[in-house]
């Protein structure tokens, strides 16, 4: 019966990319295995931290199963809740060595394609921006053609800082149809969390002769609350010691799914499966104290153009929204989501390699 139910769920998944409202009749016809939405359904934060998977920043697409969505209210990376502090043992949180696979769960492979609609801006390279602000698309198109506010040196001095606010974010071990619902996709093992992605990016930058510092400080464990405040202090300290740094990349992973279904966004690049990525660039609505946000935006567009040219399909539309994420600290500060918790370790590591290669080309063009 479990296999039959999973088959039904797999065949009834619906992708609704252009609407925000669904009739009650549709809900009666379609099992709750999956719904795609602009914030469709309720977001429940009441689950214990041990089962908190992470942040869902994809505001136009979410797979909602019959259980609770493991995502933050309003799909906001930075929103925190007292419920999210880890309880119990505060020692190292190892990556599982054994798995208790639940046959009633499903890992859904999916590839995000180009989007259409008024809020999507197409760049000259083929990359896209998802504009969630009140700034006009025409203004952003004009700004996207401007150069970043800095130049890059290849004299051995640090130019790039790679760090992680949510350092313990982790992934699936390998490709499989079902998953272990008791695993919350967090670990302090740097070979199994987002630190591993940062290592891949840093290696490619170093190979290109670009100075890079990769900081692996854990900011989200044992306490998740205050992660951004702690990572801001880390970045400020490193910038004070290394004033030559121009670019700060906060590497995360997304979390799209529910208690019984999770997404695995991938794209085939040179015969290998890479986890799709998304740049998030913050905008100031007058309350975030980010006077230079548009300078970050120009650099983000440069990167998005590079990804589209070098590895078509790797990057989902760049999110431009009223968010901060410590992007006030430099004019080259960005957040990058690499895959989701349904992606595998090898998929996200490969994406880190591709990010590093493309970024190296982009930065060398700013010499």
What's the structural blueprint in terms of helices and strands?
Elements: H1 2-12, H2 24-29, E1 106-110, E2 120-122, E3 128-131, H3 137-144, E4 158-163, H4 194-207, E5 211-214, H5 227-241, E6 247-254, E7 261-269, E8 272-275, E9 277-282, H6 293-310, E10 318-321, E11 333-340, H7 345-364
Helix pairs in contact: 4-7, 6-7
- Helix count, DSSP H or I runs of 4 or more residues: 7
Structural class: alpha/beta
Strand content: 15-25%
Per the principal axes of the C-alpha atoms, what is the gross shape? globular
| Unreliable sequence segments | 1-76
Percentage of helical residues? 25-40%
CATH architectural category = 3-Layer(aba) Sandwich
> How much is the radius of gyration in Å?
20 Å
Whole-number mean pLDDT: 82
> Alpha-carbon distance between the termini?
61 Å
Listing every helix as H and every strand as E from the N terminus to the C terminus, the arrangement reads HHEEEHEHEHEEEEHEEH
Write structural notes for this entry.
- This protein has 367 residues and is an alpha/beta fold.
- The protein has a single domain, classed as 3-Layer(aba) Sandwich (Aminopeptidase), CATH 3.40.630.
- It has seven helices and eleven strands.
- Strands 2-3-10-9-11-6-4-5 form an eight-stranded mixed sheet, with helices on both faces.
- Strand 9, helix 6 and strand 10 form a beta-alpha-beta unit.
- Helix 4 runs parallel beside helix 7.
- The chain starts with a helix and ends with a helix.
- Residues 1-76 have low confidence and may be disordered.
């Amino acid at each position: 019966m479990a296999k039959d139910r999973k088959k039904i769920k797999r065949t009834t998944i619906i992708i609704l990319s252009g609407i925000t409202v669904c009739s009650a009749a549709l809900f009666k016809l379609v099992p709750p295995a999956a719904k795609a939405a602009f914030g469709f359904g309720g977001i429940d934060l009441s689950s214990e931290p041990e089962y908190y998977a992470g942040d869902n920043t994809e505001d136009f697409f979410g797979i909602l199963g019959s259980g609770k969505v493991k995502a933050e209210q309003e799909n906001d990376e930075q929103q925190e809740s007292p419920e999210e502090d880890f309880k119990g043992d505060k020692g190292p949180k190892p990556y599982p060595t054994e798995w208790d696979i639940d046959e009633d769960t499903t890992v859904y492979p999916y590839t995000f394609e180009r989007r259409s609609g008024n809020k999507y801006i197409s760049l000259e390279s083929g990359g896209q921006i998802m504009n969630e602000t009140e700034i006009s698309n025409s203004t952003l198109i004009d700004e996207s053609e401007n150069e970043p506010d800095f130049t890059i040196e290849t004299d051995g001095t640090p130019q790039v800082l790679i760090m992680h606010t949510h350092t313990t974010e982790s992934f699936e071990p390998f490709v499989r149809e079902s998953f272990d619902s008791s695993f919350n996709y967090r670990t302090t093992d740097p070979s199994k969390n987002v630190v591993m992605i940062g290592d891949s990016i840093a290696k490619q930058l170093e190979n290109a002769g670009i100075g890079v510092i990769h900081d692996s400080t854990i900011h989200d464990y044992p306490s998740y609350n205050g992660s951004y405040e702690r990572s801001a202090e880390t970045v400020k300290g490193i910038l004070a010691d290394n004033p030559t740094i121009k670019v700060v990349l906060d590497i995360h992973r997304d979390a799209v799914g529910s208690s019984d279904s999770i997404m695995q966004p991938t794209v085939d690049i040179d015969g290998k499966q890479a986890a799709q990525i998304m740049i998030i660039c913050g905008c100031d609505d007058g309350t975030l104290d980010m006077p230079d946000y548009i300078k970050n935006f120009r650099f983000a567009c440069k990167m998005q153009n590079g990804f589209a040219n070098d590895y078509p399909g790797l990057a989902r539309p760049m999110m431009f929204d009223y968010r901060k994420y410590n992007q006030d600290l430099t004019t080259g500060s960005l957040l990058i989501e690499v895959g989701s918790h349904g992606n595998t370790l090898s998929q996200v590591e490969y994406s880190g390699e591709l990010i590093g290669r493309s970024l190296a080309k982009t930065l060398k063009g700013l010499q």
